[in-house]
Specification:
mainly alpha
């Protein structure tokens, strides 16, 4: 009896640890997301896991309750079986389904905003294979892709900037990272024509980062102009501010 109790306590403890680790996104095992887009995708995936766990636990407990009614109780062995089944359900559905990284061939599909989000997820998965200076740039690019994604809302897919982004983010960026990863690790630090593959990758990522920033600024020009116009209008209409308004002067 005491052995069964100890086993049940251990199983429950392991189950709680597993749920805690999944809730934290496995942060002790994985690096943080490079941007809000990938972080949001992870949260949505984790939400699906929680839903699957809840459905499984509901089915197990309802099934065991029905069995108890039929058998006029399930006894201690039934309670232990319920605990074990619940923990197994948490373990299985807490780790599956695995979150899939977008395949390289699928990155450039769909509309340009979806393409940017897929590139962010794909790029995050490549980060462990990149040199330290490039990793820093990947993190920067992740944040830039978030900003770019907001600017792409409602943008015509045939807009020149949409085609430019598709080429830069959906083709050139992943092709460059792919080319680097195909180079054997021991050759990545050897100079060729005065520069190493590590340096080439870092320099190329820096240029892409600058181009993403430039495109984002160009797309934001309309919003910036609109904000400036509204600001000038309010400044013209209420330029003196509330503190010096006639109503307040009259009261004083």
């Amino acid at each position: 009896m005491s052995d069964l109790t100890r086993d049940s306590d251990r199983i429950l403890s392991d189950g709680k640890a597993l749920v805690r680790d999944n809730r934290d996104g496995g942060r002790h095992r994985r690096a943080p997301s490079i941007g809000e887009g990938s972080a949001r995708a992870k949260r949505q995936h984790f939400g699906k896991r929680l839903r699957n766990i809840a459905i499984a636990l509901f089915a197990i407990w309802v099934g065991m309750g029905a069995l108890g009614l039929i058998l006029d109780g399930i006894g201690f062995a039934g309670v232990m079986a319920l605990v074990v089944a619940s923990v197994v359900a948490v373990a299985v559905f807490g780790n599956f389904p695995k979150m899939k990284t977008p395949r390289r061939a699928d990155i450039n599909k769909g509309n340009v905003q979806q393409m940017v989000s897929r590139t962010e997820l794909w790029l995050e998965a490549q980060r462990p294979a990149l040199p330290a200076p490039a990793v820093g740039l990947v993190d920067t690019i992740g944040v830039q892709l978030d900003g770019l994604g907001y600017q792409l809302e409602g943008l015509d897919q045939n807009h020149p900037k949409a085609r430019e982004i598709r080429s830069l983010v959906g083709e050139q960026l992943p092709e460059m990272v792919d080319s680097y990863r195909k180079i054997p690790a021991h050759l990545r630090t050897e100079k060729r024509a005065g520069i190493t593959p590590d340096e080439q990758l870092t320099d190329s990522l820096s240029k892409i980062s600058g181009e993403i920033d430039s495109i984002t600024r160009q797309l934001a020009e309309g919003s910036l102009d609109d904000l400036a116009i509204k600001h000038r209008y309010l400044d013209y209409k209420f330029g003196e501010g509330i503190e010096t308004s006639p109503q307040l002067e009259h009261k004083t």
